[in-house]
Amino acid sequence: MAWGVLIVAGLLEVGWAVCLKASDGFSRPWPSVGFAASMFASVYLLGVSLRSLPLGTAYAVWTGVGAVGTVIVGIGLLGEPADWRRLACMALILAGIAGLKLVSPD
Fold this sequence. Notes:
Layout: H1 2-22, H2 29-49, H3 55-78, H4 84-103
Helix pairs in contact: 1-2, 1-3, 3-4
């Protein structure tokens, strides 16, 4: 259960990053509200997952899911480049997340 909560928290991190971009420096109210709501929910769910997961593992997975998800959204929706170097770096992050999950005591 904690891993599922942590993944949702990471996906909400993607949400707040996208809303932050869409807020145009907090000059647009609805994306700014979306940023605040998804950031609060993301950090709250991270805290819930920390009840049973190790801090270092949970934090690394949370930021990794957020980073990879945000890059995917940037490529898929915002027209950011998808060259092999960016994709290789994403693969390294995913390998790190998988490795942390495999060695986690939970």
